[in-house]
Amino acid sequence: MASFTVVVGDPESGSTHQLEAEEQDANRFIGKSIGEEVDGSAVGLDGYTLEITGGSDDAGRPLNPDVQGPNLKEVLMEGRQVGYKPSRDGERRRITVRGSEISDAVAQINASIVDRGDADVEELLGEDDGDE
C-alpha cells in the first residue's frame, strides 16, 4: 500500500505541517500531478482544498513539473530549475528527476492550502497551544 508524508503549507500564517497519508487516504493522491487540487480530508483537514506543489521520491529526486508521467527521466538542465542549481553561468548538467505525476515511488508530497474550511488548521490537527 502507498504511504506518503504530506507537507502542508499555510500561506496565510506561514506555517507548515507534516502529516501522514496512508492506505485509502494515500490513494487519493496517486495519479494526480503537480498543480492539481486534492480534498484535504485525506490528511485530516476536513473542508479544506490542497494544491499539490511538488514532492520527492524515496531517493530524494524531485518531482519536475516539466516531465510528464510518474517515471524517472534524465533531463539536460540549464539555468536554475527544480532539482538543479548551477554553480556558474552557462553550466549544463544531465540530472535524473521524477515526472510530475504522483505514484507509489513518491515518498513526500508538498501541498499548499487553496480553500479553507470552517475550522482552524490547528484545531483540526489538535495542535492548540492550550494557553489558559
| Number of helical stretches of at least 4 residues | 2
Net shape:
globular
Number of strands: 7
Question: H/E element string?
Answer: EEHEEEEEH
End-to-end CA span = 42 Å
Structural class: mainly beta
Please bin the fraction of helical residues: under 10%
Average pLDDT reading: 89
Largest beta-sheet details? 5 strands, mixed
Radius of gyration: 17 Å
Strand order of the largest sheet: 2-1-7-4-3
Low-confidence stretches: none
Strand content: 35-45%
Regarding quaternary structure, what we see is single chain
Care to describe what's here?
This protein has 132 residues and is mainly beta. It has 2 helices and 7 strands, in the order ββαβββββα. Strands 2-1-7-4-3 form a 5-stranded mixed β-sheet. It has a two-stranded antiparallel sheet with strand order 5-6. β1 and β2 form a beta hairpin. It is globular, with a radius of gyration of 17 Å. The mean pLDDT is 89.
SSE arrangement:
Layout: E1 3-9, E2 16-22, H1 24-27, E3 37-39, E4 49-57, E5 72-78, E6 92-98, E7 106-115, H2 121-125
Parallel strand pairs: 1-7
Antiparallel strand pairs: 1-2, 3-4, 4-7, 5-6
What would a concise description of this structure say?
About 5% of the residues lie in helices and about 40% in strands. The protein has helices at about 25, 120-125; strands at about 5-10, 15-20, 35-40, 50-55, 70-80, 90-100, 105-115.
Q: What are the main properties of this structure?
A:
132 residues, mainly beta, five-stranded mixed sheet, 2 helices, globular
